[in-house]
Amino acid sequence: MKKIKIVLADDHAVVLMGVRGVLERHPQYQVACEVRTSGELVEALRREHFDIAIIDFSMPGDEVYGDGVRFIGYLVRNFPEVKFLVFTMLSNRLVLDRLCELGVQGVVRKDAGMPQLLSALDALSKGRRVLSPCTGEGGDLHSRLTSLSVKEYEVLRLFVSGLRVCEIARLLRRSDKTISAQKASAKRRLGVTTDQELLACCLEGHFFD
Question: Where are the extended beta strands (E) located within the chain?
């Protein structure tokens, strides 16, 4: 039986170890490579062929590749022979829909557990696509967070990671003015007025874990 060759991409060592440990118990899968940054993943994909790439949505990026929607779009366009499965904690429905539009074959939330990941891999190996549903938990805060647009979500995700407006603008290839406007719009949607309140809101909702 030909094994399904997989590359794992996540900046959390515990996640890499856990996923590898589960997959190694299933003889049809071969974890051939592990990477922790966007650049390392691109290098691995250029170096050898993989059937499936299990990737996190948020990874340490760089000014060349970035991460998130921009990076995943780049991967799908440049490596069409690879099936991309996003393994993430994101729950924003607009972002999930955007990932499907970009052409990823699957999205699975990390809190769905390893059985859901294995089910998704089985579906991908049979040519089916998989989209893990939002959990819908968190009440009003969750509703407000998931109402963000894709661009607002990207800006907030990078803001929470500690980047300044000018740094976010450079990574997303937008102007400082545009980033500031999208950040301000996100504040209005979330009902906060200061950066401190914005950060607290995102952390309380575990929106970018």
Answer: 4-9, 29-35, 52-55, 83-88, 106-109, 130-131
Q: Are 83 and 159 contained in the same domain?
A: no
* Whether 12 and 107 share a structural domain: yes
Asked if residue 62 belongs to a domain, the reply is yes
pLDDT category of residue 139 using cuts at 50, 70 and 90: very low
> What is the phi/psi pair of residue 147, to 5°?
-85, -10
Number of domains in the chain: 2
Whether the pLDDT of residue 41 is over 80: the answer is yes
Domain range for 11: 4-131
Residues 144 and 197 in one domain: yes
Question: Are 151 and 183 in contact, with CB atoms under 8 Å apart?
Answer: no
What integer pLDDT is reported at residue 157 of this predicted model?
84
Cα(157)–Cα(67) distance, integer angstroms: 11
Q: So what's the pLDDT on residue 205?
A: 61
Q: Would the pLDDT of 6 be above 90?
A: yes
Does 135 score more than 90 pLDDT? no
The count of C-alpha atoms lying within 13 angstroms of the C-alpha of 62, restricted to the half-sphere facing its C-beta, is: 8
| Nearest C-alpha neighbor of 144 from the set 82, 199, 190 | 190
Number of Cβ within 10 Å of residue 145's Cβ equals 23
**Are residues 146 and 180 part of one domain?**
yes
